[in-house]
Structures are given as structure tokens and as C-alpha cells.
Design goal:
Elements: E1 3-7, H1 16-30, E2 34-38, H2 44-48, H3 60-64, H4 70-73, E3 75-79, E4 82-85, H5 94-98, H6 107-113, E5 121-125, H7 132-140, E6 143-149, H8 158-171, E7 177-186, H9 191-203, E8 208-214, H10 217-221, H11 229-232, H12 237-252
Parallel strand pairs: 1-5, 1-6, 2-4, 2-5, 6-7, 7-8
Antiparallel strand pairs: 3-4
Length: 268
């Protein structure tokens, strides 16, 4: 059974795309067949994984609006075991075009149904908004990961996202649930970062991931080379943290982790 996971937060700059790219790449390295869907018109996941978003033959727009089959729109094996449904600025018009479309909330679900590839995991990188593109992702996903940065006002707007997820669950996708909250951009030098993690743990005691992603220059540099952090600097603390997170994902999604890849937990 394919597990479908959405990375969502209407706030920008929280590490959502970084998490989608690194989790997808690492899970593919573990041996799973993974599809990364970039449903953000900014196309940051597309460029971060090494695709040229300015020279794409077909994109998420073609799958959602032009009704091309999903397999026609993919970049196959952008990494061994990892396919990409890319995006660019053309997708920005989809929010308007979807408004008058029949079953507008289910266009991504319909597109996925056209694929003949058997994926173990589908990871969807949502835009920083709660519009129709994000609703399409939530309408097909089984779980949502919410990245939250370890900074002041981290919880601002979070209840709006939770309310949207609850609404989608009630009206469109009863199987949807919050898989977990991931703390990102943790700076161990500041007392504030630790306080934010404590606050989020108090709000989501059973949902927060044990892994905490550190703020790191190497992590910020990797996308400019079109690489995941473990490809760019496998020995870095950020690389190890994303490996821990991918393993936690496997546990929560009940995907087996090969014994030779299991590591100890990374916590703040």
C-alpha cells in the first residue's frame, strides 16, 4: 500500500521544502520507491533536488489542469528510486483555474490514480498557503507532517492549519491525520529555541517527532548544488538529523527500516 504524506505549513521559511527533499532522498537511499511531488508554484523542491525548473517538459500543472497522465509528467530516477513531479511558476495559475473545475479538491488524487508505478511512499511539498493546491494535497494524503521553526511566534497560525486539516478530514478525506510536528532551525546557543521546543511538546505531547533539525550553514548551502544534505555533507549534524527523521517516519508509517541503517535518536 502506498503511503502518501503531505508537508504543510502556511508560514514560509519553516524548512518544509528542505524536509520534503531530504526525507524523500534518504528514504530512496534506504531502498524505497519514492515519488516527490512539488505542488508549490515556487518550484523550490524541484530546484533543490537538482532539476532545472525553467526548462521542464511537463509539470504538476499539466497533471492537474491539462489532465496529462502522471507518468507523462515525471522526471524519472532523479535519484535511484526517486521520481519527481516537478513544478514552476506556471502552476501559480492553477489556483484560479481549479475554482470552476468539477471535483476541484481531488485533482491531485485523480492524477495519482493515473500512475502505473507502485510507490512505497509519496511525499508532497505544499505551498506556504492554505489554498486549493494545499487542499488537493490534504485530500489525497494519509498523514501530514508540520514543520515548525524554533523561533519566536512559532505557533502563530498553527491553529488555523490544524483547523484546515480537521475540515478536510471531515468533508473530503476521513483518512487524513497529523502524523507529527517536526521542529526545525534549532539553535542550541539560544535559550529561546529550547523554550519553543518545550512549548510545542506541551501542545503536541504525542505528535512531536523526537528528532530536532538544527540550524546549519551546510543545510542552507546544499540546495544551491541541487543536493540533499547527506549528499553534500554526510558527516554534518544536519545530515544525521534528517537521517534520524527519515527513520522516525518509517516507524510512524510502519515501513521497515533496514537494520544496517538504524541510528540512535537525535533529540534537543
Amino acid at each position: 500500500m502506498t503511503r502518501i504524506l503531505a508537508l504543510a505549513n502556511q508560514k514560509g521559511g519553516v524548512g518544509k521544502t528542505t524536509t520534503a527533499v531530504n526525507a524523500s532522498a534518504y528514504l530512496a537511499e534506504l531502498g524505497y520507491r519514492v515519488l516527490l511531488i512539488d505542488i508549490d508554484p515556487q518550484g523550490n523542491a524541484t530546484s533543490s533536488i537538482g532539476a532545472d525548473k525553467h526548462h521542464l517538459e511537463r509539470t504538476t500543472y499539466d497533471a492537474l489542469i491539462q489532465r496529462h497522465s502522471l507518468d507523462e509528467c515525471l522526471i524519472r530516477d532523479i535519484r535511484p528510486g526517486l521520481d519527481l513531479l516537478p513544478s514552476n511558476e506556471i502552476l501559480a495559475g492553477a489556483e484560479v483555474e481549479l475554482v470552476d473545475t468539477e471535483q476541484r479538491e481531488y485533482q491531485l488524487r485523480n492524477a495519482l490514480a493515473t500512475s502505473e508505478t507502485d510507490y512505497g511512499l509519496v511525499v508532497i511539498d505544499c505551498p506556504p498557503s492554505l489554498g486549493l493546491l494545499t487542499v488537493n494535497a490534504l485530500s489525497v494524503a494519509r498523514g501530514v507532517v508540520i514543520p515548525i521553526q524554533c523561533e519566536y511566534l512559532a505557533l502563530e497560525g498553527l491553529m488555523q492549519l490544524i483547523n484546515t486539516i480537521d475540515l478536510v478530514k471531515r468533508r473530503l478525506n476521513p483518512r487524513l491525520d497529523v502524523l507529527g510536528v517536526l521542529m526545525t532551525m534549532f539553535d542550541a546557543r539560544t535559550r529561546l529555541a529550547g523554550q519553543v521546543v518545550s512549548d510545542v511538546r506541551r501542545f503536541f505531547p504525542s505528535r512531536i517527532f523526537q528528532t530536532v533539525i538544527p540550524r546549519a550553514v551546510r543545510l542552507a548551502e546544499a540546495p544551491s548544488f541541487g543536493q540533499a544534505i547527506f549528499e553534500y555533507d554526510r558527516s554534518s549534524a544536519a545530515s544525521q538529523a534528517y537521517q534520524h527523521f527519515a527513520e522516525e517516519l518509517c516507524q510512524r508509517l510502519e515501513l521497515p527500516v533496514p537494520a544496517d541503517h538504524v541510528t540512535t535518536e537525535a533529540t534537543a
